[in-house]
Design goal:
CATH superfamily: L-amino peptidase D-ALA esterase/amidase
CATH topology: L-amino peptidase D-ALA esterase/amidase
Largest sheet: 6 strands, mixed
Oligomer: single chain
Order of helices and strands: HEEEHEEHEHEEEEHEHEHEEH
Structural class: alpha+beta
CATH architecture: 4-Layer Sandwich
Radius of gyration: 19 Å
């Protein structure tokens, strides 16, 4: 009976299956989530993973986010950096042109090149670019070297191709999957997390979706719905290693999608609000962090057409606050979802990272 009541209390806050999508997470966050509570609630966006779990030391992979599926139709985009000790390729062209021309791939720090090549091979094989255009893929990374043999270069171009080929709409697998396989968040097991929000502006309904690769944070700073969860678990469930128990998980890539019609300068502003979602969970952008936020809009299709004059629609600036709020809410929940969906992992040198203790978290919030 008690267990049944706890389950009802937590829905939709904790997931019964830590690394699989489709189960609602266990604490209620502000805002109205979409049907899958994932970035794929923005119509047209697809997500795919390729996960590498091999032997005792390979714990890595690739995650792909396709703004318009397999269709080449560049989206308007913007970005923001909180702290720049990391890599998200292609940002200079996004800033210069206002467009993002293809998918986003996420992997580990030393596999950016392999993912970059994999995307180009996939694009060529699928006729993604016409006319032999040069491509500047967007590849993001965070460091998984505590659990993964990062210098073994286990991610190959074919794995990026596999993630792109696996991309689909609907529920998004979360936790220790794809690029998030070996990631650590607030010294709990982290990885891929996603969430979405439905908003209404005037008579129109829009969706904001977020996907994060969460690999940051000090244990004592972790905050969930304003509660100092990290302080409560400060000296428990700590990563185990020899000789030092102090893995440096301290970066995040945050991808924000929306179908609200926004121009690049407005999407820069949306990307900035992702920082507030990180801050709500206790992230502060440490000196060693690579904290990158990318926002794109699927509105205004065919705006990259070869025509002398093109027309775009956009929200007025004084109507954009709802998009800001949704971005903050979805980013906060996506980060917590990355931990809620993750499982215990043993990796390189026997290094072990424990998941967020869901039962104790349930008791904590009930009290």
């Amino acid at each position: 009976m008690v267990r049944h009541l706890l389950t009802l209390f937590l829905l939709p806050f904790l997931s019964a299956s830590p690394s699989r999508a489709g189960n609602p997470p266990p604490l209620s966050f502000p805002g109205t989530p979409g049907p899958h509570n994932a970035i794929t609630d923005v119509v047209g966006v697809t997500v795919g993973h390729h996960t590498l779990l091999e032997g005792e030391s390979v714990r890595t992979g690739v995650t792909a986010i396709l703004p318009r599926g397999n269709r080449y139709d560049p989206v308007l985009a913007g970005w923001h950096t909180l702290n720049g000790n990391g890599e998200l390729t292609g940002l200079h062209w996004i800033k210069e042109s206002g467009f993002m021309e293809g998918p986003v791939l996420l992997t580990n720090t030393h596999s950016v090149g392999a993912a970059h090549e994999g995307f180009l091979r996939w694009a060529k094989a699928n006729g993604y670019y016409s006319g032999g255009l040069a491509a500047l893929p967007v590849i993001g990374e965070t460091w998984d070297g505590f659990l993964n043999d990062i210098n073994g270069f286990h991610v190959r171009p074919a794995h990026a191709v596999a993630a792109l080929d696996a991309a689909s709409p609907g529920p998004v697998n979360q936790g220790s999957v794809g690029g998030g396989t070996g990631m650590i968040c607030f010294r709990f097991k982290g990885g891929i997390g996603s969430a979405s929000r439905i908003i209404t502006i005037g008579e129109q309904t829009y969706t904001v979706g977020v996907l994060v690769q969460a690999n940051f944070g000090r244990r004592e700073d972790l905050t969930i719905r304003g509660k100092p969860v990290g302080a409560i678990f400060k000296d428990r469930f700590l990563p185990a290693t020899h000789p030092s128990p102090n893995p440096s998980g301290n970066s995040i890539i945050c991808v924000i999608a929306t179908d609200a019609p926004l121009l690049p300068h407005q999407l820069d502003r949306v990307a900035q609000r992702g920082v507030i979602g990180v801050a709500r969970t206790g992230g502060t952008g440490k000196n060693s962090s690579g904290d990158f936020f990318l926002a794109f809009s699927t509105a205004n299709p065919n705006l990259f057409a070869q025509s002398p004059v093109l027309k775009a629609v956009t929200l007025a600036n004084d109507q954009i606050d709802s998009v800001f709020d949704a971005t903050i809410q979805a980013t906060e929940e996506a980060i917590i979802n990355a931990m809620l969906h993750a499982e215990l992992m043993v990796g390189r040198n026997g290094n072990t990272v424990y998941p967020l203790p869901k039962e104790e978290l349930t008791d904590l919030f009930e009290k």
